[in-house]
Amino acid sequence: MMTAGETGNIFKFYMPGVGTPFPEVNDPDYSTMGLVGAVKGEDRINWALLRIIDVLMFSATEKWLTTAESRRSLKEMSTSWNRLWFGGSHNRYEEFTRLLNGLAPKLMPMLIQPEPGKPKLTGIKLYVYGFSRGAVAARTFVRWLSELLPPPAAEGEKPPQCLQTGGMQLPVSVEFLGLLDTVASVGVAHVVPVADGHMSWADGTMELPDDETYGGLIKKCVHLVSGHEQRLCFPLDSVRRANGKYPPCATEVVYPGMHSDIGGGYPPGDQGKANGENDSLLLSQVVLNDLYSASFQAGAPLKVPVDTLPVDLKKDAWRAMHPDLIKQFDTDIPLVNRFNAWRELTLGQTTPKTFDPEAASHYEPPAAGGSLETVIAEQMAWITAWRIDRYARGSMLKTPFYQRAKNTEALPAARKAAEVIRDKEQEKVLSARQNQIANQPPDRMDELVLQPGVKILTQRWIKPSCSTRRRSSERITTTVTVSRITWRSWCWIPCCSR
Q1: Alpha helices of 393-446 — where are they, by DSSP H?
Q2: 380 vs 373: CA distance, rounded Å
Q3: Euclidean distance between CA atoms 313 and 148, whole angstroms
Q4: Cα gap 189→174, rounded to integer Å
Q5: pTM of this structure
């Protein structure tokens, strides 16, 4: 989290993905239940909602919510059928409203007439991002946020798009919603006949707030999806409405590659591919640059190279992107050429010989000739033909990527040795936690944030096939912007459906 002193009034928060450590919500270890069933997802999303309260509290009092206070609120907000049979929606509204009303006396002067030298609080702007089940969490976050808005003043009217406290209204908007290949494997996945992975907090939360009631709440939504992922266990949730139309704010774009070629997760050299010294040959670099560009165009206060900063902003050191960070956006020439070859061959697009930088900064992907399903079916035909040819003629065994692939932790002895090392590291963590508990004052035990656990080993294969992949870390990031105060918590190309 950036402090206000570093970034003015811009804040960012990162919510670790399900199955990975998030000690603040009492989920300190990598867990199979989290990775498989998305357990503890509801707490992560409620934690993100509480960050809105947290930043409002800091802006008004220069004090943050304590870990203990956040945890108590999480408990109150969670789905619990023991509490008079009320579900999470009711509980969230009650607890969030209680906290907001408690801040009303402090917020009122900032909303009406702040003290000399202090900014007026005129609104909250959010920039929300997520990949995979992190994208599911991001969509759920926005859905639940809409449920926290006050009810309409009269029947038939729209609810005001604001947070209401003490008779005053604070406008709120989602300026940008950046989604990468939304896959809702929550609860039992689609491999079981009666299940589709939309249980618990993913049940009924994937549709963006409806335009008639909440039109304008989301200013811009971009959903970047994989054209070649095997969807049996990774079914995609489009942002398209049930009536077949897209929300006015939304654009959905198809990219080449698998799930982790969209949101990242393959390291250089994995499966013998992208064998560079850095990330510049990874297919996910294209999506990284496009998402950053789209978010920046939507007003997200992101870092940029220092030589591109306007003179009046150079004083804000946090806005300048460090040279090492700039390198993480590199795309090598072979990657660019192959990406453009994919566009030309499978989509029939042309690649300009030259590209005006100004035009490139406002690039819009061309509309697809059919539905999302049609585009993906065509892409699956291409990759299926490639696979048939690869196996029928045995050409895979001669490909450079196959020859370069390493047997990391694949053989039983090597894997066993790696497991022993991992277990020893986890034992050190458990010992450190015991010391944390022993040294924590008894009356402050609910403030204790345990040391996160060590990553569990995932299955590695002796030789790769196109369908093998590792689930990368799924994440949701939130940005809050308040007025002159801006708070924030954390590009497309080829083919889009509108």
Answers
A1: 400-404, 412-439
A2: 10
A3: 35
A4: 30
A5: 0.87
Q: Which of 316, 322, 36, 300 is CA-nearest to residue 187?
A: 36
- Could you tell me which of 96, 172, 175, 162 has the C-alpha nearest to residue 128? 175
Give percent helix, percent strand, percent coil of the chain, each to the nearest 5. 40, 15, 45
Q: What is the pLDDT of residues 380-412, one digit of tens each?
A: 999 999 999 888 888 888 888 888 887 666 678
Nearest to 8 by CA among 495, 490, 488: 488
Q: What is the DSSP letter of 25?
A: G
- Residue 222's closest CA among 256, 176, 188? 176
d(Cα 37, Cα 44) in Å, to the nearest integer?
14
Are 376 and 253 in contact, with CB atoms under 8 Å apart? no
- For residues 124 and 337, what is the distance between their CA atoms, to the nearest angstrom? 41
Q: Please write the tens of the pLDDT for every residue from 458-484.
A: 654 333 333 333 333 344 554 444 433
Query: Which sign, positive or negative, has the C-alpha torsion 425, 276, 135, 477?
Result: positive
Residue pointed to by tokens 């997520």: 130
Between CA 138 and CA 208 the distance in angstroms is: 10
Phi-psi region of 117 (alpha: psi -120 to 50; beta: other; left: phi over 0): left
Report the C-alpha gap between 171 and 58 in whole angstroms. 18
